[in-house]
Design brief:
410 residues, alpha+beta, 6-stranded antiparallel beta barrel, 14 strands, globular
Length: 410
């Protein structure tokens, strides 16, 4: 746990003064980076310096697109395959304990993925398009990020099928006073290119040049696996979380179940009228966090997110309902299912539909940041008991996978 963040919670004046010092440090850092960028750009090895973030997104941001030496391959073949963004974490990005919200990090991950995949999909002459998020593979929150740290988000295109592109993203936090860096997140995202003329039309993806032949075969296997898993999740699309008027006893599903209703406005959407995937993920994490906090009544943080599937686009003007319910608890973790339903209230021709779904895992922390035991969930109905057993299966499967990864190599 970073030692700086309690300072931000004690005094508003101290927050303001320290933030100003951090901004000055970031400005100096940005100037050094710009000088280094100009030197690299002069060699033809880097294209950089484009501003990404808006006034509410932080104090500093930059993008570096490492596209290799341009004499090797023309831009139409190589495309924009790697980029890095960064910004400082502010108090409104974090919870009361100073830990950055998982939804904030997920939103930054998606923004980086959307930029690099949209650039790649428009790297050749043809119909212009925008990349839309279709799926996020499981992502683990390896280390907490705190107020005052800088988040560096690096994104790389690693595979392209005919109609989709895979982007792998790493997030690193940096304490700019000590220079300490740590890996906080790794995620894999899948995007599809939608025509600007007709956002319901999926276009073809330009090919990716691989450094070795095995990379393409490995990417194809990942593509087939995620395609199969997406199909398997469709059976749950008809499941509806009913509102609870009279919450049940503590530790039951109904006691912590929560919903958020949100009117999709222009600030939530792309220029083409549908919601950013990162906005949806941030709202999903907020609801899951409320469920977890209600269940254990302590400080909670996101530990991991199972695959997030985006079943359909959400258009501007829709009313979305994000519902979360506890499905399973182990000794030290909680699994929450989150469902997103969209209601196109301005379009009578379309009915309410399932837009996204995922499972979030949270842990409970003490004031010192140590894991606490989680109150055990008490399933009451047959459906709740069935979901509990399914969640237990996912937990044991992931636990076995982690243990296999940590075993020493022979």
């Amino acid at each position: 746990m970073n030692s700086l963040h309690p300072l931000f919670l004690e005094d508003g004046l101290l927050i303001d003064s320290l933030m100003k010092l951090l901004v000055k440090a970031l400005c100096l850092r940005a100037l050094r980076r710009q000088a280094a960028t100009r030197r690299l750009a002069a060699t033809g090895r880097l294209v950089a310096g484009q501003k990404l973030m808006g006034p509410r997104e932080g104090c500093w941001a930059s993008i570096h697109q490492a596209v290799g030496t341009r004499t090797h391959l023309p831009q139409s073949q190589l495309g924009f395959t790697t980029m890095v963004t960064g910004r400082i974490m502010r108090p409104d990005d974090a919870n009361v304990a100073g830990n950055v919200h998982g939804g904030t990090i997920l939103k930054m991950i998606e923004e980086a993925g959307a930029i690099i995949s949209t650039r790649h999909c428009n790297s050749q002459n043809g119909e212009r398009c925008v990349a839309a998020l279709a799926r996020v593979e499981r992502t683990d929150f390896l280390s907490p990020m705190c107020i005052g740290e800088v988040a560096h988000v690096s994104a790389e295109i690693t595979y392209a099928s005919k109609h989709s592109v895979e982007v792998q993203v790493h997030v690193t936090s940096e304490n700019i006073l000590t220079g300490t860096k740590k890996l906080t997140n790794k995620a894999t995202l899948w995007y599809v290119p939608l025509s600007l003329k007709n956002v319901d039309k999926v276009l073809e993806v330009p090919p990716v040049v691989y450094s070795r032949q095995e990379q393409e075969e490995e990417g194809r296997k990942r593509y087939e696996a995620q395609k199969l898993e997406r199909m398997e999740t469709k059976w749950r699309n008809g499941d509806i979380v009913q509102p609870v008027l009279n919450p049940g006893k503590p530790n039951t599903v109904s006691y912590s179940q929560s919903s958020l209703i949100h009117l999709v406005g222009p600030s939530d959407c792309t220029l083409h009228g549908f919601v950013h995937g990162g906005v949806t993920m941030k709202l999903m994490d907020e609801v899951a966090g409320i469920v977890a906090a209600r269940h254990c009544k302590t400080n909670i943080v996101t530990a991991s997110v199972d695959a997030i599937n985006f079943h359909d686009k959400i258009r501007k003007g829709c009313v979305i309902t994000i519902s979360g319910r506890m499905t399973f608890t182990s000794n030290k973790s909680m699994e929450i299912e989150v469902l997103v339903d969209a209601d196109p209230v301005v379009d009578n021709s379309q009915k309410r539909y399932r837009a996204a779904s995922a499972f979030f895992t949270y842990v409970s922390l003490s004031q010192e940041g140590k894991p606490l035991p989680v109150p055990q969930l008490v399933p009451e109905t047959e459906d709740e008991k069935k979901r509990f057993e399914e969640g237990k299966g996912r937990y044991l499967q992931m636990k076995a996978k982690r243990q296999g990864q940590t075993e020493p190599q022979a």
